[in-house]
UniProtKB/TrEMBL annotation:
This is Fructosamine kinase. The keyword Kinase applies. It comes from Pseudoalteromonas rubra. Pfam families: Fructosamin_kin. InterPro entries: Fructo-/Ketosamine-3-kinase, Kinase-like_dom_sf. Gene3D superfamilies: 3.90.1200.10, Phosphorylase Kinase, domain 1. The keyword NADP does not apply. Belongs to the fructosamine kinase family. One of its GO terms (molecular function) is kinase activity. Keywords: Kinase, Transferase. PANTHER family: FRUCTOSAMINE 3 KINASE-RELATED PROTEIN, PROTEIN-RIBULOSAMINE 3-KINASE.
Amino acid sequence: MWNLVNQYISDAIHEHFEFTRKTQLPCNAHARLFKIENDHHCYLVKVDHIQALERFECEVRNHDTLIRDSDFLVADTITIGSSIEFCFLVLEWLETSGELEDWYTCGATLAKLHARHEQKMYGLEEDNYFFDLAQPNQWHKKWEVFFAEERIAWQLQLLAEKGIKLVDIDLFVELIKPMLPHQVAPSLLHGHFWRGNIAFSQGKPCLFCPSCYYGDREIDLASSELFAPLPHAFYEGYDSVYPRMEGYEDRRRIYQLYPLLCHANMFAGDYLKQAANHIDDLCK
């Protein structure tokens, strides 16, 4: 397969490429990550079984959307391809460092993205993925309907199909819709905005692994506070451009249920317990 990767890269950059160093990188998804390089070029390569090709193609389009509509650094796609058994996605290598982390600018950059409001409905023209999970994006006019049905109900149904029933899905969906009463204009979301998908290159914020769609901007903010809250400077930067709305603290807990359910579906274990406790708290 790696000869094929070399060939695809050579065709994409219009010069011969053959890597001389290959390093496997840590990854918490099914795909394997590699850094490949020679004396002149360096790339990030994602490798997975052939069934993941559609997911890689969605990721390419999500990357292109963020490159077009945001001021974040986002890796360009070099090429995408497949063999009989595997598929691969080759991305520009962004050299990142933890030494120059401008979290204030990162927050302000996300706020500028959220403030564009160029879409009238909630969703996306195609379904995509959160990690390895299919993420439905059917267009809706009402945000509370989109979030309750396309996000929460979908994840609960996936768990139910595995024999795990955390709550009556229909009743819970109708319960959370009235919890989202505020009027919100659709923003383009990263969709999986947390510390593990943020880095800095010479101080400029970079984003990785997008799961884009149009929704309430508070989704990205709530996600950023769930597993590894970002530095206070990030939220100062965000509020300096597009202040959070009153009641965000109440909605944050509702929005954090979605990534918890996704993790419960993918990894089970303690995430199932966290999701169940989260649902119990919301029901109260």
